[in-house]
Batch of 3 targets.
Target 1
Amino acid sequence: MSVAGALLLALTLPITIANLATTPTRANIEAADPFVRLILAFGAGIWPIAILAAATGVYWLRGSKRLPKLVVTWTQPLAIAAAIGVVLPLLLRLIGGSNLPTFFSADQSARPGMPFGLAAVLLDETVVRMLVLPALLVFLRRRMTTTPATAAAVVLSGMVFALLHEVGPAAHVFHGDHFLLRFFLPGCALSAAAVLFGVPIALTGHLVAYVMLCLIFA
């Protein structure tokens, strides 16, 4: 998890710079990730997200003396995760055309602006993959055998991911297709990737896929 902690810290920096360099419009705010809008409702901008991610990154980095070697070891897997994050949106564009399919919500496009978009990825991965999923794995593996406990943790973390996007000021309208997409893809699928291949894989794939969606879809 030390590499994931380092990635969180590294991602906090561009989000902080983007937040300082740009002023979000009302349209950006209205299109932002519902989970991010819940944080924005407290009136402190996206700073709480950056602080939470930085604190979580520091926690997972604590006592790590092998980070440079680990980074070298993880270079190829992270490159593969990034490549998958590039290829899947390109395939979606090739099959579906220039408009983002309607089963994607507005926050998964360029409409929120890059600061809010990156903040959403950072918040999702910090809360779900760095906090909720590890806690579920520890809790359930003490009460079940490994395989059922792991499967349950993946499904429950996917449900948490989806439900977190149904709270706050943006949650007044429920879209079943958006909920199911969040549950299965960035929820369960990325949690499964985190368990099988490591949290850095899930974080990298999520980040690159989001940036690609912004770049290639109208």
Target 2
Amino acid sequence: MRNAILGAASAALALSLSSSALFAQDAAAPTVDFCDELVRFIEAHGDAEPVLPLAVEDARDFQTANDVTACRDGFVRIRDAGITVPAAVVTQIEVPAEGQAAAAGEADGANIVVQQPAPAVTVEQAAPQVTVQQPQPQVTVNQPQPEIIVNQPAP
């Protein structure tokens, strides 16, 4: 009975989302292995700035425990820290709420939310040009009157 309900809910979800190739997938089975992706992402990021809010050891612990929710939440924390995550992960971390609602039999008004990371904006300013203007200086030379002495022999 449960499989029939899940199958019907999955079919309803696929039907309601058929116009969008991004989301035409089975809600019960995510297409991204969050734990493997999380470990790969953190290892690839290395010690680069900005520092990730999650250590690779934590991600491996989630992976070992097969804790998909913790891995998904790890990507959400990374995205919320302003770090760009892979596009396939972005679409998957936004879809589960809708997929779970459809699986529970509430597919009567599926809301699809796609949230993109904020774009990086770089502003480059040219070096400022500084111009100094001042009035012509007034030059005054003070010197005493010259003394003129003419020596002439007497006639």
Target 3
Amino acid sequence: FPLNAFNKGFLLQFFHKNKNNRRTGFFLEFNTNLNDPNALMTDEDLINGNPFSYTESEVIMKATCAKFGAILSFSDKLLFNFGGFLELSYQNVWQDMIGYAGWARNNAGTVSSIFGDGIVVRYKLNYLCKTYGFVFSHKIAKRFSVRLKSGAGVLFAMDYDDHVIRGKEASARALGLGLQLAESVTYFLGENLNGKYSIRLSHKLRYYNANGVQTMSWYKNDGNVEKGTTIEGIPHHFKSFQQNLVLSVGIMFK
């Protein structure tokens, strides 16, 4: 399931310094996609490890991601800052697979081309991750600063897919691990009575891995499988590696 797309969003941050000169703060981030993925969804079916069908489909997608968290500085100096953070992130992806083209192997071993149009699969995915980690920032010049953010946490994953052409639904839930790493460079343009302006370039990595169980049910006949059949307890593995390159323009008020 491809996720590559352009996104738009915002980041709001609030910081306060206490009498010990340590900063505490809260942040809220939200983004959503601007376009559909430019890659194809691929689907391969296996029997005893041997592929018997392979198809590719175009994708229509709606994806959103929201984050809320808190930051506490352990050391806040003039040129560098080191602290910890707690973050709750939620990612929702909805996709429709349109059309398919590929090949299939029958019981006799003969391979033939297959194709079709219309909606073939509908897919929904949810990731909820509670992350703990560290943040380090350093002012390397008068107008430049760098920042590194790294964390790990507990991941809850849930998905649902509807194979429309097969009349089969499947849903799964799982617990696992979520990791994140982000580095950024900020250039401060200057400041006036309205605040301090900046441009930031960020690179963000996110890795999710979870194991759970899946339930399949058929709402129409599918070959030798009759309508109404349900299979529970199927092992299901979530694995996602995501990276984002972000350009942002901001203003900071004091």
